[in-house]
Amino acid sequence: MPTSPGDKGYNAIVADPGRAVLAFDYDGVLAPIVGDPELAVAHPPAIAALRRVAVRVGTLAVITGRPADVVVRLGRFGDYPELAGLVVFGHYGRERWESRSGEIVAPPLGPGVAAVRAEVPAVLAGLGVAGEVSVEDKGSAVAVHTRRAPDPARMFALLREPLGALADRHGLIVEPGRMVIEMRPPGFDKGSALRAFVAERGGSCVAYAGDDLGDLSAFAAVDRMREGGLPGVKICSGSAEVPEVARQADIVVDGPAGIADFLDRLADELGAETAG
């Protein structure tokens, strides 16, 4: 059962869908977590349900730590006419892609990411773990994934300090996630992106669905908007890896399949037809 504030937020969306803003993380929410990030294609039932909701809800957004163009490609968000109004924020809000234009807008990138990208291999080699982890070049960030290591959690703990020191030397911040340590420029987070977008669109209510530590800033943004009188609901795509997210959510569902069920329920209440 949802919390009381979450129930109020959900009911507000049903009552005024045209002015609702629904936002989602991508990995772990609209797509399953997989060992190779390049294989994280969207969960078909979740996208079908999203398309159903899109014809009734005023604004849909994806807010991800990944590059916007990668998520657009993996999610095939440019392929569906129902998603013509979708906005994808990449790199925690640094990038913005709009379906109607197909263009990405982002500020210039400083030198810190290039420096970290160049030094990460030596750091991993010095620790003797280069062959046990994978490095993802996100363009505006560098991520080290430990999921393929024999003991992913132990490897994650081992790398936190040296990668944090590397990021700090070059003016970057560390964004820990589900068996991934990401080094990225400061100044952007999902919560700031969500609040600014809701204000831009004049939203009367908001929902955000996430699964990882980087989504907690968006949950906090929903809390602040609720304190200001804007109804909202926080949805967790559940995972045993990051129980902190479930503890702060109004509703917990079972991964992308649970997100699909949640959206289908909402679409049913809004009288949306099945996506073709």
Summary, kept brief:
The protein has about 280 residues and is an alpha/beta fold. Helix content is about 40%, strand content about 20%.
Total domain modules: 2
Unreliable sequence segments: none
Mean pLDDT: 94
Beta-strand content bin: 15-25%
Q: Report the strand count.
A: 12
The CATH class of the largest domain turns out to be Alpha Beta
Distance between the termini: 31 Å
Shape: globular
Helix proportion range:
40-55%
Structural class of the helix and strand makeup? alpha/beta
The CATH homologous superfamily of the largest domain is called HAD superfamily/HAD-like
CATH topology label of the largest domain: Rossmann fold
Question: Describe the biggest sheet?
Answer: 8 strands, mixed
CATH architecture of the largest domain: 3-Layer(aba) Sandwich
- Our count of helices gives 9
- Strand/helix succession: HEHEHEEEHEEHEEHEHEHEH
Radius of gyration: 18 Å
The order of strands across the largest sheet is 5-4-3-2-1-10-11-12
Structure explained in plain terms:
The protein is α/β, with parallel strands linked by helices. It has two domains: 18-105 and 188-270, Rossmann fold (3-Layer(aba) Sandwich); 112-184, Eukaryotic phosphomannomutase, cap domain (Hypothetical Protein, Haloacid Dehalogenase-like Hydrolase, Chain: A, domain 2, 2-Layer Sandwich). Helices cover 40% and strands 19% of the residues. The chain contains nine helices and twelve strands. The chain has helices spanning 4-15, 44-54, 68-75, 112-127, 152-169, 190-201, 216-227, 243-248, 255-270; strands at residues 20-24, 59-63, 87-90, 95-98, 104-105, 134-137, 142-145, 173-177, 180-184, 205-210, 232-237, 251-253. Strands 5-4-3-2-1-10-11-12 form an eight-stranded mixed sheet, with helices on both faces. Strands 6-7-9-8 form a four-stranded antiparallel sheet, covered by helices on one side. A hairpin with a 2-residue loop joins strand 8 and strand 9 (180-184). Helix 2 (44-54) runs parallel beside helix 9 (255-270). The longest helix is centred in the middle third of the chain and has 18 residues, at 152-169. The chain is globular and about 60 Å long. It starts with a helix and ends in a 6-residue tail after the last helix. The relative contact order is 0.19.
